[in-house]
Amino acid sequence: GQNIDQPTEMTATEGAIVQINCTYQTSGFNGLFWYQQHAGEAPTFLSYNVLDGLEEKGRFSSFLSRSKGYSYLLLKELQMKDSASYLCAVMDSNYQLIWGAGTKLIIKP
Amino acid sequence: GAVVSQHPSWVICKSGTSVKIECRSLDFQATTMFWYRQFPKQSLMLMATSNEGSKATYEQGVEKDKFLINHASLTLSTLTVTSAHPEDSSFYICSVSPGQGAGGTGELFFGEGSRLTVL
Known about the structure:
By secondary structure, chain A is mostly beta strands.
């Protein structure tokens, strides 16, 4: 079956760095997405990786290793507004998105 | 600006009534739209794929007679929850992907979501 694994919850301190891991097993691979979702709101797009390596976008970076079925989202200089759930999703060979359950990130002052 | 508009944002209804949720693609024509449901503290669950001019494709376990989907134009899809019951209370979200399929990133743009509470 298809499976996306990510930690349920993480806690970090304001100003610090946090890495959220995602491992996947899917039928084919057409890219991996990271979305941010604040409580009660719809998800918003953060990043897309289809090739191995690191994609940097401001304070957020996303890494992909296709051979390992592994990705991480790196958040630097954490701010209180970064408290949210972070969803990992993989597009399979049929271009269907397989969603992880999300990682709830709690930022403490 | 918003790419996808969803309405209403909040709806409270009595058990047994029907509720219609609209999803509009504002920036491009969408032959395909996706409807998701999300229960508290859970991830998004794809309910159905809405196809313009044809029948929607429902995921396993989703009752097509209960969740009616109409995609009458390239910019509008509607989800009607018929004979709603308290267990249907959830966060319903629509999305569109301008680059779906080969050659596109498949990035999804989401509507604001509709929170349904059935009393």
